[in-house]
Amino acid sequence: MNEAEPKTQAPGEDERWFTRSVAAIGGASFFADLGYEIPTSLLPSFLTSTLGAPAAALGLIEGVADGLGGVSRLAGGAIADDPGRRRKTAVGGYTVTALLGASIGVATAVWQVGVLRVAAWVARGLRAPSRSALLAEAVSEGTYGRAFGYERAMDNLGAIGGPLLAIGLVALAGIRTAIFVSVVPGLLAALAIVIGIRAIPKAKRGERRPLRLKVRPVLHGGLGRLFLAISAFEVGNVAATLLILRATELLQPGHGRHRAVEIALGLYAGFNLAAVVASFLGGRLGDRRGMMRVFALGVAAFAVGYAGLAATGSSIVLIGFFFVFAGVGIGFAETAESAAVAGLAPEELVGSAFGLLASVQSFGNFAASAVAGGLWTLVSPRAAFAYLAVWMLLSLAMLAFVRPRVGA
Q: In terms of CB atoms within 10 Å, which of 21, 45, 134, 270 comes out highest?
């Protein structure tokens, strides 16, 4: 497809974006996040208190799970290039992730938890590109922003609800039962993706595409330059736990440890709510003004948030202000990343493009957290957040070299 030519669409098609398929795929993201946030939030306590494992076991399990999950996202891209395979992979991935994650609740040994957690994250990684490719298949290019913004907002809502649901389930039935019950929202996610797939017009029968990861073609031209900007952003996109830790340390001298933690968690809830709202608004803005602008606004918002957290003192208002900026940044940036990749990737490479995007996000986040954590320990928290802000500025500089398509 010519980089300067947008896909054609029928008159009025631009307004018909919130279809059954879009609603169902967004619902799948909500229920899936709701489901796997339960074992994720309870895993530290389950390993250390229930099974008596050292804290190092948690770090090892999560490190291996995240690493292999990132590799599986790349492999899942090759699968998602074929319309038929992407449908089967999406359904199977959601189902297997739900079953494996919930099975942690009946594990009696640390190694069993490790195997189940890693396998669940591999299944989750494999299906991620297929879900994104299905969403791109379900709507026209002029509505990519609103469709992906809705999906990202539902994902963030699930991330808010999962830990809250975990707290309630533990109080009612205990930690093992709470983890096992996470299979319910997980299977609802699988049901939702089936409904979404059935609502998408069937792909035209054609020659079955060979199972091959196509990285070099994806990195050609404008899409490759976009990936450079995305990579710089993701290497500075640190885990939200470091934001919570920064707020806690800033507030502790004036409020005490327990109260500081409570306030920091409240600020994190505000961060997530800002991300939900920004995902909706960013998607709509991107469809009208262009995804590169929305991505740039998201990166800039993150730069302000990080710079502020590097320099601010113990004011709750100021810390909350910078948390909201970071939430707006993640809502805008993640929506724009997906919609821009969908718009720039040729149809036959859309799965590989989303697989590469998911892998860059996974490994970039790991690198950001590892380096920032090291700077935090060896130098200072200010140095860590200043380092992250520099990556945001580098991403903005690289984005200047990305030439958007007309109408994108």
A: 134
Rg (CA), the chain: 21
On whether both 35 and 80 belong to a single domain, the answer is: yes
Q: Hey, what amino acid is at 117?
A: R
Q: Are 140 and 9 in contact (CB under 8 A)?
A: yes
CATH number at residue 297: 1.20.1250.20
**Residue 135 is part of which domain span?**
18-200
Which pTM was predicted?
0.86
Tens of pLDDT, residue by residue over 283-331, are: 999 999 999 999 999 999 999 999 999 999 889 999 999 999 999 999 9
User: The dihedral of CA 286, 129, 27, 236: what is its sign?
Assistant: negative
Q: Please enumerate in sequence order all residues whose Cβ is within 8 A of that of 57, keeping only pairs 6 or more positions apart, or say none.
A: 47, 110, 114
Would residue 379 count as lying in a domain?
yes
What residue type is 80 in one-letter code? Answer: A
**What is the DSSP annotation of 55-83?**
HHHHHHHHHHHHHHHHHHHHHHHHHHTSH
Structure tokens at 93: 């991935």
Helix (H) or strand (E) holding 165: helix 144-173
Counting runs of H as helices and runs of E as strands, what totals does the chain give?
A: 15, 0
178/104 Cα distance (integer angstroms): 10
Residues 392 and 309: their CA atoms lie apart, in Å, by 14
What distances in angstroms separate CA 263 from CA 37, 310, 384, one per listed residue?
21, 18, 22
